[in-house]
Amino acid sequence: MTTHANELAVDVRGLRKQYGDVTAVDGIDLGIGRGEVFGLLGPNGAGKSTTVEILQGNRSRDGGEVRVLGADPAKGTRAWRSRVGIVWQDESAPAELTVGETVRHFARYYPKPRDPQEVIGLVGLQAKAGSRIKALSGGQRRRLDVALGVIGGPELLLLDEPTTGFDPAARRQFWDLIRTLSDEGTTILLTTHYLEEAEALADRLAVVTAGRIVAEGRPAALRDRYGTEATVEWTEPDGAPRTERTATPTRTVAELAHRFDGEIPGLRVSRPTLEDVYLRLTGQEDAR
Question: I need a labelling partner for 181 at 20 to 30 A (CA). Which of 39, 241, 242, 277 fits?
Fold first, then answer.
């Protein structure tokens, strides 16, 4: 992370958005430092995509104050828009063009674009530069979507669930790309359903449910704050498995060792993961 002190790329206070009787965003406050990778987590319908659309200037808001790169997105000029890149979930470029043709074409939309060949290399599509888009795999198409998101040299990149549908290998390659962009100083806002992805990439996270932020902080801090109980598992002498959740696992293990007078059959102690914390915060703990 290359955050500049006291500088915010995104500054949101009291953001609200209503669709008829449904409140999609219900008073969100959000501050993202320049150079930061920020993860926005939440179940479907939590308000993540609506928030991203408002930040990008593609959707109006019903209340609150929003500043993105120093400007109100609702009044964003063409010059301001060129400083914000976005990669939507289902974005796809024209199927008949080649990768090179597509990236060069989109570069013309920006006043100071990055070099198309450099960007194609950045996303790992050098070998596919002459291939038509319809011949690319799903992972390669998403890489092209990212190339189109960064061709304008954005200061802020908005990624809306960018690795949905990726296989594990493609997802890991994409993570490397995000880290490269972050190392270059790009501010990144990432929405994702994948907790492992958020933990691997994000400097800080916010968990959103029902249009509200219910927790925010560094991944490790969220685990410490909301994942206080460990799980102790063992096997009783009659073969019955037992599980106990406790805030004092060391004491529980000591008591078991005394009761068993030595080794504890099937002993396993596990600390809460970020996924455990996420499910608890979003009210989905019993759905696991």
Answer: 277
